[in-house]
UniProtKB/TrEMBL annotation:
Reaction(s) this enzyme catalyzes, per UniProt: Catalyzes the rearrangement of -S-S- bonds in proteins
NCBIfam families for the chain: pdi_dom
MF term (GO), any: protein disulfide isomerase activity
Thioredoxin domain: residues covered: 307-435
Pfam families to which the protein is assigned, alphabetical: Thioredoxin, Thioredoxin_6
Protein name as it appears in the record: protein disulfide-isomerase
Keywords: Disulfide bond, Endoplasmic reticulum, Isomerase, Redox-active center, Repeat, Signal
Chain segments carrying region Disordered: 28-73, 301-334
Lineage: Eukaryota, Haptista, Haptophyta, Pavlovophyceae, Pavlovales
Length: 436
């Protein structure tokens, strides 16, 4: 962790040569304002209140990016104000390149964006109308997700303080730092960003549902934000949907079930996990828990054991939770040698990238095996897995953590699967998205 921080500082130092441009952009941000945010935010409203400074009911997480919340394989071009606003209205951060003309700078931006397309949402514009409205001529700007960002508590956008768009490492570090809102949502994409920022992560688990209960979800986000404002630079804060992360609850001494009105709180600090216990959630109880953590008064509910390779000849998964006697006959094993045959365009393919030492992968294993058995008789569907620790994932299958699951419909492109990790919901997803 310390080494990563030193590397981060070193790369950020290289960007200091553009400090004047950065300072000018801060002025522009104050002057320009930004779309979205929590304009109606009121932390004291009751359940069902909370500000949602945009129309939640019109929001569609899929947008134009395709079903399942993944990113398009092509970098979008924005030509109108309506397209620009629609692109930004997403649950994840958005990166927009502004260019006065076609040329090498735009080509470099596109090339860099192409290599990061599974990490962030990218678009670009050469529209004179948009360039004039946003006062940029050659710039990359990251916009925090309007669902979570609050103009009253944070900057809603930030301009990359550099002009060399070939430097993908520097851009990655910048985006990790500037794309996360004060309170965001834990997803397969943001999990890596939170891990890389080097701060302990406060997780608030509840039934996040922006489809059926946006105001109820905002109710908790607003209350978490009231606490998060006091710990900028010390802690990161994120909400986590119980349906997606209930498998983590035991790490924090919590028992959480989807569909129940429960709120659980935990802190992830390196290899240590801390749980708030059964205390009723409120800004006051959350702050008290955070203060105890910062003062070193808490005992970890779990310490994650470092991975040690098993002795030669032993099954790495034998005896581990999720391993052992699991019938995986319905799951096809993909390797670099057979990848094109397994992930063929004429099939609907669900593909898991895993690591043998990954605890969450072991917990997923029996559910994924059930999924494979579910589709054994369906010749149009392939349920497959690949050891991404032993084999490098092919281009276009960007893996940032374990497990990572993609779905590639017949004749289509791979899209990250962000739903619940149980056989029932994964099967429903495959049936809903497969092409016959």
């Amino acid at each position: 962790m310390r080494g990563f921080r030193l590397l981060t500082l070193a790369l950020l130092a290289l960007l200091a040569v553009n400090q004047l441009a950065w300072a000018q952009d801060e002025d522009d941000m104050d002057m320009d304002g930004a779309e979205g945010g929590d304009e109606d935010y009121d932390g004291d409203e009751g359940y069902g209140g909370g500000g949602d400074g945009y129309d939640d009911e019109d929001y569609s997480g899929d947008g134009e990016d395709g079903e399942g919340g993944g990113g398009s394989a092509e970098i979008k071009e924005l030509t109108t104000v309506e397209e620009f606003d629609a692109f930004l209205n997403d649950e994840d951060a958005s990166v927009v390149g502004f260019f006065a003309e076609e040329g090498s700078a735009l080509d470099d931006f596109k090339a860099t964006a192409q290599g990061m397309q599974w990490d962030y949402r990218f678009a670009y514009t050469t529209s004179a109308e948009l360039l004039s409205a946003h006062k940029y001529k050659s710039a990359a700007v990251v916009y925090k997700p309007p669902r979570f960002a609050s103009e009253k508590a944070e900057k809603l956008k930030a301009r990359y303080p550099g002009s060399d768009f070939k430097n993908s490492d520097a851009l990655k570090i910048f985006l990790r730092e500037k794309s996360l809102p004060l309170v965001g949502q834990l997803t397969w994409k943001t999990k890596e960003r939170y891990s890389s920022c080097g701060l302990p992560l406060v997780k608030v688990f509840f039934d996040v549902d922006y489809e059926l209960n946006p105001k109820g979800s905002n109710y908790y986000v607003n209350r978490v934000r009231k606490v998060a404002e006091e710990y900028v630079g010390k802690l990161s804060f994120a909400i986590a949907a119980i349906k997606d992360y209930s498998y983590e609850s035991s790490d924090y001494g919590l028992t959480l079930e989807e569909g129940k009105k429960q709120v659980g709180v935990g802190i992830e600090d390196g290899d240590k996990r801390y749980g708030m216990g059964e205390a009723e959630f409120s800004p006051a109880s959350l702050k008290a828990f955070v203060e105890q953590f910062l003062k070193g008064e808490l005992t970890p509910t779990k310490v994650v054991e470092p991975y040690s390779p098993p002795p030669p000849g032993e099954d790495d998964e034998a005896g581990d939770e999720g391993g052992g006697d699991v019938d995986e006959s319905g799951v096809t094993v993909a390797t670099p040698d057979n990848f094109e045959q397994v992930v063929e365009p004429s099939k609907n393919v669900m593909l898991e990238f895993y690591a043998p030492w990954c605890g969450h992968c072991k917990m997923l294993k029996p559910e994924y095996a059930k999924l494979g058995k579910e589709f054994e008789g369906d010749e149009s569907v392939v349920i497959a897995k690949m050891d991404a620790d032993e084999h490098t994932p092919p281009a276009g299958w960007e893996v940032q953590g374990y497990p990572t699951i993609f779905f590639q419909p017949k004749g289509g492109k791979p899209t990250p699967y962000e739903g619940a990790r149980n056989a029932k919901e994964m099967a429903e997803y495959v049936r809903a998205h497969k092409v016959v």
